Amino acid sequence: MTTGSSPKHDDLEAGIIGDVAAADGGGGDGEGGGWECEDDFSDPFDIANTKNASLDTLRRWRQATLALNASRRFRYTLDLKKEEEKDQRSSMIRAHAQVIRAALLFKLAGQRAIGTTVTPPNPSADYSIALDQLASMTRDHNISALKQYGGASLLLVKGVSEMLKTNVDRGIVGDDNELSSRRNTFGSNTYPIKEGQSFLRFLWEAWQDLTLIILIIAAIASLALGIKSEGLQEGWYDGGSICFAVLLVIFVTATSDYRQSLQFQKLNEEKRNIHLEVPADGILINGHSLAIDESSMTGESKIVRKDQKAPFLMSGCMVADGAGTMLVTGVGINTEWGLLMASISEDTGEETPLQVRLNGVATFIGIVGLAVALCVLAVLLARFFTGTSRNSDGTIQFVRGRTSVGATVDGVIKIFTAAVTIVVVAVPEGLPLAVTLTLAYSMKKMMADNALVRRLSACETMGSATTICSDKTGTLTLNQMTVVEAYVARQKIDPPEDISQLNAVVLSMLNESIAQNTAGSVFSSKDGGGIEVSGSPTEKALLHWGVKFGMKFDIVRSESTVFHVSPFNSTKKRGGVAVRRSDSQVHAHSKGAAEIILASSTRYLDTNGCLQSIDKDMGFFNEAIEDMAARSLRCVAIAYRTCENDQIPADEEQLAQWQLPEDDLVLLAIVGIKDPCREGVKDAVKLCTDAGVKVRMVTGDNLQTAKAIAVECGILASDADATEPNVIEGRTFRELSEKEREHVAKRISVMGRSSPNDKLLLVQALRKQGEVVAVTGDGTNDAPALHEADIGLAMGIQGTEVAKESSDIIILDDNFASVVKVVRWGRSVYANIQKFIQFQLTVNVAALVINVVAAISSGDVPLNTVQLLWVNLIMDTLGALALATEPPTDHLMHRTPVGRREPLVTNIMWRNLIMQALYQVGILLVFNFAGTSILNLAHDGTGHANMVKNTLIFNAFVLCQIFNEFNARKPDELNVFSGVTKNHLFIAIVGTTFVLQIIIIEFLGKFFSTVRLDWKLWLLSLVIGIFSWPLAVAGKFIPVPKTPLAKVFIKPYHRCVAARNA
Fold first, then answer.
1. Is residue 176 annotated as part of the catalytic site, yes or no?
2. What is the pLDDT of residues 967-979, one digit of tens each?
3. Residue 676 · residue 473 · CB < 8 Å
4. Could you count the other beta carbons within 10 Å of the beta carbon of residue 607?
5. Rg of the chain's alpha carbons, rounded to an integer?
6. How far is the C-alpha of 462 from the C-alpha of 772, rounded, in Å?
7. Is the pLDDT of residue 315 over 70?
8. How far apart are CA 857 and CA 855, in angstroms?
9. Is the separation of the CB atoms in 603 and 613 below 8 Å?
10. Residue 332: phi, psi to the nearest 5?
11. Choosing from 471, 758, 790, 814, which is the catalytic residue?
């Protein structure tokens, strides 16, 4: 049983035997850098990285946000109240664990003084121990109960395993009926997961928008007055059409949000399938250097060593080091972790920097819209009561003393609803939600590209990445290793498996070292067609080599017993075992990086099996290592030494702390292991370079191997680039001062013989230089670095549980090409949001200016409430769906990375939207003031002429938005149609909008206050709309300044606020 997450381990029942393991690798990043705010200005929306933002910071930007519907606006952000409750619950459980530990120590002291008895086990169903006793023993770490249940057995867990009818070697040996019986008795390893919100809940939340509520109230009042003055048959149209339009907005909004929530539910299920923690409560059966990080339960960051004196393992804790096998004693909600997860299992979302910034944009637009709406309201009311407003037929709307109270109230309500509708259009509630829409879409697609996103904001941040610090083994290379060269007894063996000429003593020691100093195994395949080898790629390569030269794995292992293990460590670059042979002789075997083992060796076995001093042959061995490394081979050395029995601690506790001797070794062999580059890595590295993202290799291998692979992958252009500081050793970099590291860091392309801490130092130095750093990591020691990184990328295959838990994105296939795809998707998220902003701002500016100018000059608005609500629907919900789901294009990877504080609305976007808005405003205002004569409507009645003119304005305005959606797809490219046929959702939305517009004009005139248009006016509307395409092409030839307009305009605002705060 590998370690895993708590939600889904249905196959883990009480009594199952399982393995827990941790491996080591490298990778990390650190905090650093940042940007200083000008003039002591504190902008609540200026949060460049929400990964470690405090709750106070997040609360501050929310309080500064203008939101008409807070429940909808902040649905997919972190629920601050729930987050505080979660922290309180976690603290309570941690306090519980600490109290238990203190009580246990007190109890053990008392037991030693006076002796104690344990309640005998009570049979439960088919088993000799009850669920509550089992859970209590594990939860309370009751070693006395374990000893009593263990009876006379030396292995304490033996008694409990017999009570549970479990074999400590093979686990449960039973059929489905027995598993079902265990599940009924002890529960399943799941906890209840809260269901997502229903569609009705989304309808209710969409209804909470203040402006929509005001519109409904106004519409009901208008409906009542209309029916009273004009009768039911004609009087319900005005109020009824507004009610219908508002309900349609609510329904479409709720449907869109509900679909998003389903998307997130599916993604959360995928996350829960990634197993990260110790999956159940249990008791250790056996283990080697097993260390557990219990901070998730106790709150203490101290790593706890597990052995027969401290055998209890808690669900939800991380395996920090070593390996072991455990007996499961508690699953699901019968564990402390299960109870905690059941109470906080609902995914509450998180903040992303883009969401925060878009809330700032939405707030600014909303304030402008509110000011415009108040201006329109004041102007229209003034004109109404001064008698300068006229009806469509030319009659004065209000005459003091003559107009009835009902007609006056109805007129005021229409003016009020027009002003409120401007607010509805102006405040883009859908803008921050467009982030979640595009993120949900991107996360789904990234799963297909072997990248599981654990934190939403990582998608965005990856688009800003300026450098990627990548591991070599398994990421840039295939991690499919084969021994292709070997030096044994100072001879080069060619081919490497042909060692028949070697002395029997050399062969015996080599067999023993390969077979015993490994976590892998050799066994017969199930089909009987040969042998299979398990273990890490390096160990598999060595075991395959041993089998090829005739090593009998099982026989060799039976001739000696392993009594101490020192697992491979990425810092020391070596690992070893101590074995006792049948003749009581003790050998300590070591295996690791060739130059490190060689430096610790003083002798070697020659071809006759005699010990020789290594001093005069050191040059030969070093030359062999350098030669293999230059050909991109991983060099591993195998050595041993004999230990005297009196040097070995007899006490088990002292033996657990004993360090294997690491000097005076006898060299047995040096082997070169080939690990070929992954197919497509060179192209992926070139793609990153073209995109302005520098790829750096950080590896534990020696410098020669690292250089050879870097040249092969394209990280180094040639051997001529392989000079310091482009290529540097971890130790050299570590010994530099902090300022020297910052100076050197940007030039580093390859770091060899690095430890996880060296990688962390590199990334901290890079971030202080303003770089946005993505880091890959697979080892437990990488966890702090991954946690602190801008984007932590854990490896899904080789990565340990701790590394995955600390990461932002898990690369499921360990492939560097998948990392590059994440960069591509990250840029796509940002680009899609910018497309949507350009589209939405164009509509906002045009609609607001047209209505304001018309209201002030003529006392009438050409776009009425229902029409504006339809425009809002196109702009807010349908526009987001169409533009936020654009797939990434190759063009994105030919840009430089987007800076974390670059303005959302670029100068290119300003140019595009100003041109389109000016065109729309200009041509539609011309028709508003001179449409009657231009369209030759003078012979029609005034009322009908105005209706035709306003219908044309409305129709042309909507068609302008439909055609401008195509322009928004490619803000900086001439061909806005490239790839459009591949985006079926975009085509469907644009097509549906166009068909609905035809239905509105031709059949729903009563509701939208429009009349039918003949084919000439339809053609004119289409020409007005289509003209936005050539206009957009022409506009792209207009150069724009490099300094962002936002900076020019916002500096006075910053100074003003800073002065006010002074």
1. no
2. 999 888 888 888 8
3. no
4. 13
5. 36
6. 8
7. yes
8. 6
9. yes
10. 60, -135
11. 471
